[in-house]
Amino acid sequence: MIVELDKMTVRMKNPDHVRGIISSIKKDGINKLQVISDFDMTLSRFGWNGRRCPTSHNILDNSHVITEEGKKELKDLLHYYYPIEIDPNRTLEEKCPLMVEWWTRAHDLLSQQKILKRDIAQIVKESEVMLRDGFNEFFDQLHKNNVPLFIFSAGVGDILEEIIHQANVFHPNINVVSNYMDFDDYGILRGFKSPLIHTYNKNNSVLNNTEYFQQLSTKTSIILLGDSIGDLTMADGVASVKNILKIGFLNDKVEEHRGKYLESYDIVLERDETLDVVNGILHYIF
Ligand code: C5P
Ligand code: MG
Questions:
Q1: Can you list the alpha helix ranges (DSSP code H) found in 14-67?
Q2: Which of 66, 111, 137, 158 could covalently link to 70 via disulfide, CB atoms 3.0 to 4.6 Å apart?
Q3: pLDDT score, position 209
Q4: pTM greater than 0.95
């Protein structure tokens, strides 16, 4: 029914269950559908030409506005905390405080760098960030069909919004919850607005009002897109869920994580840098 599901990158623990959910979503109609997605390494690419692509944080970390010393300190944090973030052998209880520590230390370092609001567009232009192949079709299809897209990101809101703007796909059906920069009256970065969103608190606890999801209470079919185990709780604020299809991009340490991802996500996309499968499913539903 959806040829993209035959791609070599696709793994499913229970293909019949997946087909069942997709049929149910189609049957209930697009008026009932909403999409909830992570940004970094889900809508943006993990790698290109054998190189890692930057996250929204990395875009700032690597930019020309950061001193050499600042860059080194930010890189040291990444090398220390990223392996903890993705370590399958540590519990969430162990990881959460360490993630708060990472984000807090990185945000403090960035806030010492006198980053100007007016430089953000140029910083994004000069970066190596790329959206996944097929992003135009993804964003445009959702917009054309009036399907709300909620982007829930532990990255940097100002940066990811700029990326989507520069790709000309920031349509009015998009809502973003993320870490936003706090600039002083001179447009100089002085900190980040709260609440702090990290990989493992992407749930109700940081959505200070669930007004967004209350407005969408009739949208009981959900397609959830993520790349981390932390992304699985992004739809917890939805008032009433009838059908939920969870699609997970497995980008890194694939063999080590496969079991856990297959248990948690309905569809696992291994080292797939495209939105082909998502677009194929949307195409079928529309
Ligand atoms: O879950 P989400 O994709 O929104 O999380 C943001 C990503 O940014 C995490 O996967 C994390 O590895 C990365 N990150 C980073 N630098 C930081 C903090 C997080 O690259 N200082
Ligand atoms: Mg991510």
A1: 15-28, 56-61
A2: 66
A3: 67
A4: yes
State how far the Cα of 127 lies from the Cα of 123, in Å rounded to an integer.
Answer: 6
Coil, strand, or helix at residue 245? strand
Single-letter amino acid code for the residue at 79: H
Question: Mean pLDDT over all residues of the chain?
Answer: 97
In the chain, the amino acid numbered 25 is I
ipTM: 0.98
Q: Using most ligand atoms within 8 A of CB, pick from 199, 202, 251 the residue to mutate for ligand 1.
A: 199
CA distances to 16, 17, 40, 222, 247 from 216, rounded to whole Å, are: 28, 25, 24, 11, 21
Indicate if the pLDDT at residue 260 is higher than 90: yes
Atom 18 of ligand 1: nearest residue by CA position: 103
What whole-number distance in Å separates Cα of residue 130 and Cα of residue 139? Answer: 14
Q: What is the dihedral of CA 111, 42, 194, 173, to 10 degrees?
A: 120
Q: How many helices (H) and strands (E) does the chain have?
A: 10, 11
38 part of the active site: yes
Q: Which residues contact 272 (CB under 8 A, 6 or more apart)?
A: 7, 9, 10, 249
- CA dihedral for 170, 149, 268, 21, sign (positive or negative): negative
253 contacts: CB under 8 Å, gap ≥ 6: 86
Q: Nearest Cα to 272, choosing from 52, 42, 51, 86?
A: 42
Annotation says 40 is catalytic: yes
Ligand 1 atom nearest 41 alpha carbon: 3
**How far is residue 280's CA from residue 223's CA, in Å, rounded to a whole number?**
13
Spell out where the chain has E strands: 10-11, 33-37, 47-48, 51-52, 149-156, 174-179, 181-183, 189-192, 221-226, 243-250, 267-270
